[in-house]
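[Meeting: bench + compute handoff]

Bench side (C.D.) handed over the final construct sequence. Compute side (W.E.) agreed to return the predicted structure before the next meeting so the bench team could plan truncations. Sequence as handed over:
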Amino acid sequence: MVSSVLVILLFLVYTTNCYVKQVYKVGGLFNDENQVQAFTTAIDIMNKKYELSQMQLVPVPTIIPTHKVLLSYNKACKLLSQGIIGLFGPSSTHSSSYIQSLCDLKEIPHIETHRDLNLERDNTLVNVHPHPSILSRVVFDLIEEFDWKSMIILYDTDENLLSVSTILEFNSLGRTVVLRQLEVGNTNEVDGYRTMLTKVKLTKETKFVIVCSTDILETVLKQMQEVGMMTDIYSYIIADLDMQTIELQPFQYAGTNITGIRMIDPERKEVIATAGEIRKRRNVSDPLEDLAVIAAWKLKLESALIVDAVKLFYETIHSLTADDKMFINATPIYCKSNDNWAEGYTIINLMKMMSVEGLTGTVKFDFEGFRNNFIVDILELAPAGLLRVGGWNSSSRSFKFERPYKAPLSDDKQSSLFNRTFTVLITILPPYAMLTETATQLVGNERYEGYCVDLIDSLSKLLGFNYTFIVQEDKNNGNLNKTNNKWNGMIGEVIEGRADLAITDLTITSEREGDVDFTMPFMNLGISILYRKPEPVPESLFMFARPFSLSVWIMLGVSYFLVSLAFFIMGRLSPTEWQNPYPCVEEPEHLVNQFSIRNSLWFTIGALMQQGTELAPIAISTRTLSGVWWFFVLIMVSSYTANLAAFLTVETLVTPFKNINELAAQKEIKYGAKVNGSTANYFRDANLSSYNEIWKYMVRHPENMMSDNDDAVRKVESENYAFLMESTSIEYATERHCTLAQVGGLLDDKGYGIAMAKDSPYRNELSRAVLKLQETGVLTSLKIKWWKEKRGGGKCSRKSEGGAATPLDLQNVGGVFLVLFVGSVLAFIGSFVELAVRVYRISKGKKLPFKVALKRELKFFVQFKENVKDVPDSNTEDANDNNLIDKTEIEY
């Protein structure tokens, strides 16, 4: 029986141990949070993949600054003391060698993922990043494949230059290689790399190898475009493996030959799934960035290599521990001791023999421990985006191009804007289009500058079209002639086909959209009022009364009289307030009360003026009321002082009207709008009766209608005149004319658009491009440039609006009045309680009914002229008692 029980117990113990997971810690030294997220995500993915396995890895990551070598060493020692079975990182060349020496000494598997120019075979090191010398051959072979005879290498750091050092061998092969370091301009950081790139452009070289970090790559490409180095005569090879992570859309229609390389295929399902898991840990607020497909294109090589390294390490540990082949004993290792880990070499040797399929392709190592047999994708930027056109195999060191089939262009060339030339109609109207201010003679498009000129230029770079500006001399945006149903101005030019595009302060209206097409608005605005700046409020003799509103002053006066009356009443009710007028006489015949009606008024006003009086309350009730009144006075006086200071220091401005309705209601100020403009038409077609009255006024007074905004601005400055115009034009005028300001808010909501012929095939592409410029902040920067910086912008320093002080109302100080009221009520209750106690003692001593004694006190109380009272314990008081208490009261 006993043996059977033992057998069962042993079986249970055995089966239980079979399902208990062995937990192993894995350390990590990383430079930023992105690397930590990739590390922890990869371990979670592998743990879920082998959920039924008897082992489980637990990540122990640590973030260390790049240059902190000693800190890295100390953190590594701390991780070893926790019993880790492997150490990932650091991703820094500064501290990598120190950590590697430590791992070699302690025989701990060391896994790295960064590019190491001095990478050599080490006992315990596995680096999943391809050897830099091998990657350098990719660019070398590409140059040979393209048969470049000369080139310029643009690099940012010496380390990046050394990563493509094999290219320098071309100098000995009869080809010309020139080095140019990317340096920021000496004038200011805004200039960026433009000065340097302009000098490079003057060399007439058209073939470049760009070796720089992706942190600046997009900026470099944009500034190349700005200096004219993004045309079809230029060719670029980008040597960074993270090229696909930057925004390349602005360059894909330029016709430039841009070639790049990568090790991650963002269209693979495994890459998309892993990138999505990593992105979830970052709590990205933009909903589009949460998409796994977008995240896959943004996944950087360093994160992908960490995921692959974790996968390789996990598969190694799993193969060792599966089916109880080996039990790994994770023991703490200390840096100050001579011990090492006996099982480290077993793991590291097996890792170098393993082969796994990761995000960067096949992870496999040669006999020296360097990664081999991997494929680098060759990419080209086309109008359709970034396309894979081939691959480079590290084993054969050869290319295999698989260029996609390019369909012949359709005969209908209208379907695309690429390489088309458009006639763009503009008007000379600041800041939308102006003649360039220069002493030299200019020709062509260089004659013009302004917001619309820069906008068309940005669209052309984005979509790859050419353009020629022509000017609408009469500055007429376009109006419909109801008689012959024909348009004049810019709209008419577009309809007649004399201009492909028209751009200025051209408002999108339903009437215009009936005959032409518009892009989506590139600027949103509304109608408002331009008028002279508000004038300061004239000084007043009663300026001191302005900190409080009239209602507060009235309440303050009422409170003063009510509290004074309360002092008078409570003083008469409270026995303690009846005092001996002659302190030297121990038994006086009379008592006096200090709170007469005059003294009560004086005591209250003395506290209110913060001067005090010689009166001192004695009774609890009067002291309570005094404390509450003093608190009330403290708050009110402090509030008055603070608001008075604001009134005296802040200039309060006043304008004759505050909105369009007040403007229409008055008769002194003249007003108008632009003749036949969209603003005038808005009031003409409005359904509101008040707006119809404004239109009728404009019809009755045609002399107030202006043909030009500049004339209107001068009229507003010199006369008592208000001008109705778009808010953007008002903003431009107020930046340069400091006596003018916008009055009121916007009356409507509309936008400016680019006009083109009806049913134009360019509309959708141009609208998407405008939207792209809006999303990237280009439109905002252009507005800041031409409104606030160029041509006198920023001349008028703006004062913050709403700085005028406002009188304190009851809602601001109502709580203080409430405290005063509650305190007064409590003081009254105290007076009656005190009186009742006093009457009770007198009635008990005189053996009188309480009601009779109370009635006697109240009878004296209502004799307000009497301010002298008999002493209760004197004979006089007894006589008075007999006189005051009649027989009827005693019988009662």
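W.E. noted at the follow-up: The mean pLDDT is 81. C.D. will use this when planning the next construct.
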